[in-house]
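Project standup — Tuesday

K.O.: blocked on the structure for the chain from last sprint. Re-posting the sequence here as requested.
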Amino acid sequence: MTELIHNATIDTLLERRSIRKFKDEELSPEIVATLETVAQHAPSSQFLNDWSAIRITDPDVKSQLARIGGQPYIAEAPLLYVFVLDEHRNAAIAQAKGVETGDDAFTLTSSYRYTQAQNDAVLALHAMETAAYSLGLGCVVLGSILNDAAALVDMLNLPEYTYPVLGLAIGKPDQEPALKPRMPRSMQFFDNEYPSSNERVLAGLDAFDDEVHQYYDLRNTERPVDAFSNQIAVVAVDDSVLSKSVVPLAERQGFRLDR
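H.V.: unblocked you, prediction finished:
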């Protein structure tokens, strides 16, 4: 195996793990300012700055998010954000410059802008997460808040041309989970083109299945985690995702994903 190069940044990223239990300690204003400023320095497609983040400080709102996500620890996070793809601000800027936002010439609501804004929000969240880990903090990314995205939109008063992307909980860790196994690089990194056969794509899967099956998640220390391929087989036929279609709510928020 090729030996890795190590420095403080690389080691922070290699040691990254989700933290779901935090110490009951507030984070300083300096930490909050640092994390938010780092997020603002993430890449942004065409410098549109087309994301925003809602800092959740109200205990009632935290509790509602925990109910939506089905994860009680969300309500206990000392610092909690919901990242949002945001073309509302840019639409307001364009409108102030005389652009008519109601006709077909207005393209900030197109599927391309939607996906690019979503990418920008994720990049900003990841920058914040990495900065938090570098400060000795712990984080967990919260896709679960999208279990009821419509309720989230209403709860956070998200205006037209916005859509929630992910949540991020941050605090001082009060647990030490084991590092989750990672797929062999050969299964995720390819040269010049995608492999032409599934045999090549799946080379290394058996060994990865064994490694995952030996991993014990702190959320259920009584039994090992299911093999990776078994997890995929279950998720592949999980019809609960059909009720979470993005399109109806995105259209309600003013996006035109058919364009």
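K.O.: great, moving the ticket to review. The first strand starts at residue 51 and ends at 55. The CA atoms of residues 185 and 191 lie 12 Å apart.
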